[in-house]
Amino acid sequence: MKLASQANKLASIVLAKFHLPNTTFHNFDIDSQANKLASSLVSRDLDLSKRMIFHTTDVLNAKEGLDQYDVVFLAALVGIDKESKVKAIEHLEKYMAPGAVLMLRSAHGLRAFLYPIVDSSDLKGFEVLIIYHPSDDVVNSVVIARKLGGSNGVRDSQIGRCVVMPCNCSKVHAIIMNNFGMKKNLIEEFSAIE
């Protein structure tokens, strides 16, 4: 389980370093050791150490400040089963800003043996914009939804451009974020370790 948590941090580090150089990433994780290791890793890079912030808390305890983020990434391993995944989504719906974007990982077909499938019906209070099911060796699908109640300046036409991109999920994250023109705060990957 620790490796999965650290891998989530690696995704945000790659996005920050190579794809979103003007974005601040707030990483929330229940595993303090994973946060400590990730913080140590980025401390060697002056730019990353300023833009990568690590918070040790359970996703269900994160409330204040969630409305300040344009985009929230929900890691695949938040909620090992369907019920806990939906509980995390419901929590985010309650505290995210109207118009903010939720990007989460799901699964499709036989890949559901590894991760719970998130259906459109699980995203109450969100408008599902895109569901991307990879056809290569990438395991996770990507679901992008916008919290109802506002647009946050993101146009559907901007998001639609990434649907046809034949790329892996981390590239999809970066393409979508660049299309949004998001340059402000970003929450990357909530991760839960049980």
From TrEMBL:
Record Pfam families? NAS (PF03059)
So which domain of life are we looking at? Answer: Eukaryota
Q: Where is the signal peptide?
A: none
Instruction: Give the EC number(s) listed in the UniProt record.
Output: 2.5.1.43
Which PROSITE patterns does the record associate with it? NAS
Keywords, ordered alphabetically: S-adenosyl-L-methionine, Transferase
InterPro entries named among the record's database cross-references: Nicotian_synth, SAM-dependent_MTases_sf
Q: Which reaction(s) are listed as its catalytic activity?
A: 3 S-adenosyl-L-methionine = nicotianamine + 3 S-methyl-5'-thioadenosine + 3 H(+)
Q: Which family does it belong to?
A: Belongs to the nicotianamine synthase (NAS)-like family.
The function of this protein is: Synthesizes nicotianamine, a polyamine which serves as a sensor for the physiological iron status within the plant, and/or might be involved in the transport of iron.
What name has this protein been given in UniProt? Nicotianamine synthase
Q: Which species does this protein come from? A: Camelina sativa
